[in-house]
Amino acid sequence: MYRGEPPAPVRSSSQVPAVGTPSNFTPIAPRETMPVYLTILRAEYGLPKRRGSIQVRLQLQKKCSAFKLRTPLIPLRYSEPVWMHTWKFQEEKSTEGFTLELLHRHSSSVVQMFSGSEVLGYTSLSWESLLSTPTLSCSGWLSLTPPMPVTKGQSLYVCVFDSSPTSATVVPHHQLHSHRR
């Protein structure tokens, strides 16, 4: 069956500039992405003697302020809250790492609406420090920095696993799967 003449060879983009492309245009560099598995296990030490509940919030350090994940709420009546909550997400290395915050949510919905969540402590982990370990992982207690020096510090027990970064030319910015074990 005759399908016509074969197409003309395609020239690379470096040989033929696109119509309307500025002379100082720099093409977008490929992204380095990595799958991350982060499990929040439990919190301890110095939890408030107040009513309400606590949860952990994860946010990226750079380039994506809207990316925030939260664990389920745990009532403060438990002396050592246990989550066993795992997040799996695909992340760009350019975000540089993540910050975990231990949040106190008030028991009254009216108070919560006006004051929001109180940060009890926070810690950060960079992708570089995680990638520099032989196992590409970190597991254990992370000390939390209190927001004010007068408060007693807390800590979180977490497990973070990662695989080596891969280059991607087109990858959705975040692919998020959250599940609870």
From TrEMBL:
Domain of life: Eukaryota
InterPro entries to which the protein is assigned, alphabetical: C2_domain_sf, GRDP_C2
Coiled coil: none
Xref: Pfam families: C2_GRDP
Chain segments carrying region Disordered: 1-26
Compositional bias of kind Polar residues: 11-26
Stretches assigned to the GRDP C2 domain: 33-160
Protein name as catalogued: GRDP C2 domain-containing protein
